[in-house]
Structures are given as C-alpha cells and as structure tokens.
Specification:
Elements lengths: L6 H17 L11 H14 L20 H13 L9 H13 L2 H12 L5 E4 L15 E5 L2 E12 L6 E7 L10 E7 L5 E6 L8 E12 L3 E2 L5 H16 L2 H17 L1 E2 L2 E2 L4 H29 L5 H26 L19 H14 L6 H12 L6 H6 L1
Helix pairs in contact: 1-3, 4-5, 4-6, 6-9, 7-8, 7-9, 8-9, 9-10, 9-11
The chain binds flavin-adenine dinucleotide (FAD).
C-alpha cells in the first residue's frame, strides 16, 4: 500500500485548494443566507467546477468526471479541512441515486437524480416491516397493478425521516404466488398523498427520527418501478450495498475520536484533566489504534479500487468495524462524563467539533442504534463469514429460504 500521492495528484490538490480559497466560505450578501441555502449555492458551484457529483453524468445534474478514487479522496480531505459542504448526504443521494444509476430507467434518472443531489427533494427508505427486518424477504406490504397504477396496502416500520420525505423507495410484494425472494418489486412513490399515514416513533433520546408508515390504497404510477416486476430483491441489494458503505465510512470515526480527545482534555478526574489519567490514556491509545486501523483498511479498499480489483472482505468489514468503534468511543465518553451521563440526551452532531455533555449522551444512544440500522452487527458477521470467508450458509437463514 503506497500512501503518498504522485506529483500529478498533488497538482490536483492545489486546484481543489485554489477553488476552495475562492469559493468558501461565501462572502458578502451570500454569507448572510441561511445555512442550507449557502450550502446549496456552494454545491452548485462545486459541481460546475467538477469537484462534486463526479460520477454522475451531466445530463442528470452531475459533473461527469472520469472515475478516480484518489482524486475523490483528495476532494473529501480538502473539503473537510476547509469545512466546506461535501456531497449531499442522506438516504436519497447516498443510496437511491447510485441505485438509479445502476438499475433505473432513463426517465427515472432524468427526473429524480438532479433534484436529489441538490437536496431539493428528500427520500425515505421503506424496507422494514413489523416482523421483517433481518428476514427482509418475508415482507408483506402488497402492491397490486390496477390499470396504470400500483395500489399499495400494508405497513412499514423504522422509516427514518418519513415525516420529512417527499418520496419513498420501497419494497412491495407484487407476485403473491411467487417464491419469497421472487415476488418483490422495488417501487418509488410520493409521500404526499391521502393513502399514506406517517406516525412518529419516539426513541430513548426523546427525538422521533423514524416512523411507522401505513398504506391504505396508496397509489403510484405503473412505470415508477425500478428494475423489472418481481426482481426488486436484486435492486434492493444494490441499495443495501451503498447503505453499508455510507455507514462504514472511516471519516466519521476519526472525527468522533478527535472530539473524544477534547472531552478527555476538558473533563477532570481526581482534580486533574482526565487525559492525564494513565487508565484513560491507555483506553484512548487503544481506541486510536482501532480508529487508525479502520482508516487504513479504508485506504486499502481505495488502493484496490484504484487498481480495479475487488475490495472483497475489507469492504464487508467496514460497516461492522465502524459501528463497533462508534460504540467504544461513546462508552469511553460516558465514563468520562460520570454523573453528567445522566443528562437528557442532546442532538447528535457530526464532525470533529466539540460536543456538549448532553450531546455525548445522545451520541452514546445513537451508537446502539447504528449497530442495528442497515442490517444488524450479527447479520453483518454472517455476511462476512459467508461471502467473505466462504463459510457455509447460516443454518437458520437457509432453513427459512
Ligand atoms: C437508527 C435506525 C434507522 C433505521 N432506518 C430504517 C429505514 O429508514 N428504513 C427501513 O426500512 N428500516 C430502517 N431501520 C430498520 C433496520 O433496518 C432493522 O431494524 C434491521 O434490519 C433489523 O431488523 P429487526 O429490527 O426486525 O431485528 P430482527 O431481524 O428481529 O433481529 C433481532 C436480533 O436477532 C438477530 N438475528 C436475526 N436473524 C439472525 C440470523 N440469521 N443470524 C444471527 N442473528 C440474527 C439480529 O442480529 C438482532 O440482534 C432502521 C433501524 C435503526 C436502528
């Protein structure tokens, strides 16, 4: 693994830095715009300059650059250093857009990708149902083709952001007679219609980030199906692959660890900064080791991708590693907080910036959920064992078909 960049890439880094120096932060009247508007304006310019939405063709609103993982990494690093808004994050840009690029029809790409990457429309993911989480293919929500429309009845659960979403991509059973995995289709639908009821689910943090969604004769046009009828399972696996990559990104772990070090500097134990306590230092160093290994695993994945090789097990491990590390960081933070760990949880933040004690409590609670979201840690271990190590299939899962 060679971690240095060639002169050609260092020249590219110079171009990225020059663009950032001239464009971020916004100046004059633009600097007074609300945060989201400022970010949107900057992103538009970064796309025009060829630095964001690089893998997306121009006709779908992207900047259509040749695939180059090293350039992509340089952009991420320099944008993070300048604290400039990077790629639009979230379910729509990170999961649906790559799925549409791989499996969507031409009109779907033209209609949905550009407004999604600019943040003008928001998506939610309707996969899980009561009783169908890890065993997702057992889902029961039905879609029946009546004339030119799919008519949808059933229920989804744990639907993150459904209360803010304009559209949902969801899995429905469209071929009741077909075998479990073969009877599912991948549909897009508008959330702004009478047949949909969104009920918030309150978490232990006090926030209600996810919801139950009920469909009573909800409708969507016949051609809002991604992939072929009955082949939604294959399409859904494309989305899940991108979901795991999104959750497994090492940059988050590193940023959270840096924030933990600041916490150890500002909290005290026996009258001294906690960072001077040998037991705390020991745990911090051990954690830094995990975080750095995770980061270098990411570089290994990058090096393989740069050589057009299959990243294999390294990629499969990323999601599991990052949720484990996130939980270990949050556990140490809670120990540092002592009695303040009983605070009402504050809203979780991203990035290396300082977090309040209440936000650390929120971070700890979030770290438990992230080991479940997008496939639980146990399921991810199965995936690593079966697809990564070639072990026999999990007995319980294969018995269920
Ligand atoms: C923060 C968060 C956000 C979410 N957002 C969304 C969303 O936007 N859209 C959406 O559709 N879903 C969402 N989910 C749901 C998530 O995908 C499911 O919770 C997850 O797939 C697990 O399913 P389950 O809750 O039904 O648990 P179960 O499948 O019932 O699992 C319970 C336990 O049994 C274990 N288990 C089950 N089967 C096996 C097996 N074969 N081998 C070993 N262990 C097994 C699991 O690992 C777990 O520990 C979200 C969940 C969380 C926590």
């Amino acid at each position: 693994m060679d971690l240095s960049y060639s002169a050609e890439y260092e020249k590219f880094r110079g171009e990225v830095k020059a663009f950032l120096a001239g464009s971020w932060p916004l100046r004059g009247d633009e600097a007074k715009l609300p945060g989201e508007k400022r970010a949107a304006l900057f992103r538009e310019r970064a796309i025009a300059a060829g630095f964001l939405a690089r893998s997306i063709p121009k006709r779908y609103g992207g900047s259509e650059q040749a695939a180059d993982v090293l350039k992509a990494q340089i952009i991420r690093d320099e944008f993070a250093r300048a604290r400039a808004p990077g790629e639009m994050a979230g379910i729509g840009p990170s999961m649906l857009v790559p799925t549409l690029l791989e499996k969507g029809s031409e009109w779907q790409k033209e209609r949905f990708i550009a407004p999604t990457i600019r943040g003008e429309i928001v998506w939610c993911q309707g996969y899980s149902e009561p009783g169908s989480g890890s065993d997702l293919a057992s889902l029961q929500t039905k879609a029946e083709l009546r004339g030119d429309e799919w008519v949808i009845n059933g229920q989804k659960i744990w639907t993150s952001g459904a209360h803010r979403a304009d559209y949902m991509f969801c899995l429905c059973r469209t071929e009741p007679a077909a075998q479990k995995h073969g009877g599912i289709s991948y549909l897009l639908l508008s959330m702004k219609q009478p047949g949909i009821e969104v009920r918030p689910l309150r978490q232990m943090t006090g926030a209600a980030d996810f919801n139950e969604v009920f469909f009573t004769d909800a409708r969507t046009p016949k051609d809002w199906i991604v992939g072929k009828r009955g082949e939604g399972w294959l399409v859904s696996r494309t989305t899940l692959k991108h979901e795991r990559n999104m959750i497994g990104d090492a940059a988050n772990a590193l940023a959270t660890f840096q924030s933990l070090v600041s916490l150890a500097q500002r909290t005290t134990r026996a009258g001294k900064p906690a960072i001077q306590d040998p037991a705390i230092r020991q745990r911090l160093v051990q954690l830094e080791g995990y975080v750095r290994s995770h980061q270098y695993s990411g570089y290994r994945q990058l090096t393989k991708a740069a050589k057009s090789q299959d990243p294999g097990r390294v990629q499969l491990m990323n999601k599991l590693t990052s949720t484990n590390i996130g939980n270990e960081i949050a556990k140490l933070a809670l120990d540092l907080l002592g009695d303040d760990g009983l605070y009402e949880p504050g809203e979780r933040t991203l990035g290396a910036g300082p977090r309040s004690n209440a936000q650390w409590v929120g971070q700890f609670m979030w770290s438990l959920g992230s080991a479940v979201a997008g496939g639980t840690a146990n399921i991810q271990r199965n995936v690593i064992g079966e697809r990564g190590l070639g072990l026999p299939r999990d007995a319980a899962a294969s018995a269920k078909g």
